[in-house]
């Protein structure tokens, strides 16, 4: 127990925490630059869909890097007796499985451009998706990802992993506070323009 209490964060812990905070910050800044200035679309010769795919690949790759850092950080931290009980692995695998179901099913429902900020590129969906998993939560990818982080931390039995998982949830909630109103305004603007077009007709 003393080893746990005296354990201090390592360099890889700080890098992991930094990566967790960086990813949503990065994609929100880049996506808003794209919406206001068409930065990526211009870079890809005015091909917005290709630009969106490029951002999707970047975000996905950054996610893999973040996950690798998280897993490596867990290896360098001590376990806690409460997290090494026989029941814990079952809880861990359940959370990981449910988290992945939420992430994968939401990606399937939205498609690549719907998942990876296509609306900032002007690639808008016809109507909101209300099928599973969006009939459970409005942010299944964020909550599913958080569940996977918590499950992984439990699987390794590392309290530090739970702290990092808490950071994951916190940065996602901050990201949502910016993304949801902005995305809603994108679609509200589309609807206003449609109504204005009908009036002119």
Concise structural overview:
The protein is mainly α and 201 residues long. The protein has helices spanning 2-6, 11-37, 39-43, 48-75, 88-115, 140-156, 159-200.
**Describe the biggest sheet?**
none
Tell me, what's the shape? elongated
C-alpha termini separation? 74 Å
Give average pLDDT, whole number: 92
Helix and strand element order:
HHHHHHH
Q: Helix/strand-derived class?
A: mainly alpha
Strand content: under 5%
Instruction: Give the helix level as a range of percent.
Output: over 70%
Report the strand count. 0
Total DSSP helices: 7
Write up what this structure looks like.
With 201 residues, the chain is mostly helical. 76% of the residues lie in helices and 0% in strands. The protein has seven helices and no strands. It has helices spanning 2-6, 11-37, 39-43, 48-75, 88-115, 140-156, 159-200. Helix 2 runs parallel beside helix 7 (159-200). The longest helix is centred in the last third of the chain and has 42 residues, at 159-200. Residues 1-6 have low confidence and may be disordered.
Provide keyphrases for this structure.
201 residues, mainly alpha, elongated
Set down the secondary structure blueprint.
Blueprint: H1 2-6, H2 11-37, H3 39-43, H4 48-75, H5 88-115, H6 140-156, H7 159-200
Helix pairs in contact: 2-4, 2-7, 5-6, 6-7
